[in-house]
Amino acid sequence: MTGVDTSWIKQLLRFERDGDTFVAAQPATGPGPRLFGGLIAAQSLGAAGATVEPGKLPQSLHLYFVRGGRYGVDVELHVERTRDGRSFDTRRVTAVQQGAAILEMIASFHKPEPGADQHPVLPPSVQLADTHQREHDLGYAAHFEIRTRPGDTSPFAVPPFWIRTLDEIEDDPLIRACTLTFMSDFGPVPVARPADTSSGSDTEYAASLDHSVWFHRPFVPHDWHRYEVRSLNNSDSRGLVSGSLYDSQGSLIATTTQEALWRL
Description:
Radius of gyration: 18 Å
Strand order of the largest sheet: 1-2-4-5-6-3-10-13-12-11-9-8-7
């Protein structure tokens, strides 16, 4: 990124460090009353990655959102070195705010090695040329350009949509994986909503419960990517979805899953 200022995501990954405990300052305000889950997930992955040798790259992460976080309050990220192996390292991260855990994550890092490179081809649900630029007021989504189906007028961008960062991100695999983690939290919750239910009730409540990401191939944040998310199940006030992130050439970059609580 010659001549480019430090990216917004790298600034969010600046920590005060004491051994394997990292302190992440949080923005004073945000788009809602609770910290954006993708933000804490990205910071947790960044802290975990800071304890791993540079040759090992994020392979996957699995996390639970334990309770809602607050803006304007520092978050402590406690990293446990679960395992250091020749090919894989495993880390556990507990994000703590005001003495209470708000997120628990297990992350795996893998040293790249040769092997098969293949995945099933999924035709796009929507072509980039058939989308329109989404005007939104979604806080951190302002760092991204999002293009949705013309008929999408919901408060949130509903997948399938096309997305890219407005600014370039440092050519660093960990920082780019954190960017992908951040943006992967856009979209799953509205897809997890039970079908044929009306919106707008003052009593309805939605929240992400858990989230997983598998990193398959290099991610270039400023290039266009298509995010497909499909519903898998609704029961017990919980909706489960699976997501796939493709680049413009149709290569599968990452796979996600998320379960969300929907009280209607």
